Amino acid sequence: MRVAFELNGTPQYLDVDPGEPLVALLRRLGMKSVKEGCDTGDCGACTVLLDGRAVRSCLMVAPQVQGRKVTTVEALGTVDDPHPLQRAFLDAGAVQCGFCTPGMVLVAYELLGRNDDPTPDEVREAIAGNLCRCTGYVKIVDAVLLAARWKREGRWR
Ligand code: FES
Ligand code: FES
């Protein structure tokens, strides 16, 4: 079947298998920031934004994005020109192996889109569904709070 949607601002018209998991479709399209972790909705590594809301792409199939906007971390910044939220993760030491990082960044992006002055508990609640095996979460919370401060100071693009 044919599906039409927007991926990081670019229209897509694709023939897909109706049962193809969204995570597989996005990786097939080169969005390698979208990680396949548990494939059961438990780890958050496959998180993307769907019309601005964080969703687990392993729990969706390709036809479900028909007419919708999908955002992956590739839309935020690059290695040479990271988004301030990504820069905050780097500066706070919140990236170790990096497997969880794209999902963490996207749930943080969603949180800071509706609340640019979250408490540490609100950050912890936002990232609660995203697992990290490396950092112990403290530095991830620090990174989101740092990014929030930069956003309030007008340092986001
Ligand atoms: S791979 Fe989707 S939640 Fe773990
Ligand atoms: S940095 Fe390794 S899983 Fe989070």
Q: Report the order of strands and helices.
A: EEHEEEHHHH
Principal-axes shape call: globular
CATH top level class name of the largest domain: Alpha Beta
Unreliable residue runs: none
Average pLDDT across residues? 97
End-to-end Cα distance, whole Å, is: 37 Å
- Determine Rg (CA atoms, Å): 15 Å
At the fold tier of CATH, the topology name of the largest domain is Ubiquitin-like (UB roll)
Count the beta strands: 5
CATH architecture of the largest domain: Roll
Q: Give the CATH superfamily of the largest domain.
A: Beta-grasp domain
Structure summarized in a few sentences:
With 157 residues, the chain is α+β, with helices and mostly antiparallel strands. It has five helices and five strands. It has two domains: 2-74, Ubiquitin-like (UB roll) (Roll), CATH 3.10.20.30; 84-152, DNA polymerase, domain 1.
Question: Which key phrases capture this entry?
Answer:
binds FE2/S2 (inorganic) cluster; 157 residues; 5-stranded mixed sheet; alpha+beta; Ubiquitin-like (UB roll); globular; DNA polymerase, domain 1
Please outline the helices and strands.
Elements: E1 2-7, E2 10-15, H1 22-28, E3 47-50, E4 53-56, E5 69-71, H2 84-91, H3 101-114, H4 120-126, H5 138-152
Parallel strand pairs: 1-5
Antiparallel strand pairs: 1-2, 3-4, 3-5
Helix pairs in contact: 2-5, 3-5
The protein binds FE2/S2 (inorganic) cluster (2 copies).
One FE2/S2 (inorganic) cluster (FES) binds near residues 95, 96, 98 and 99.
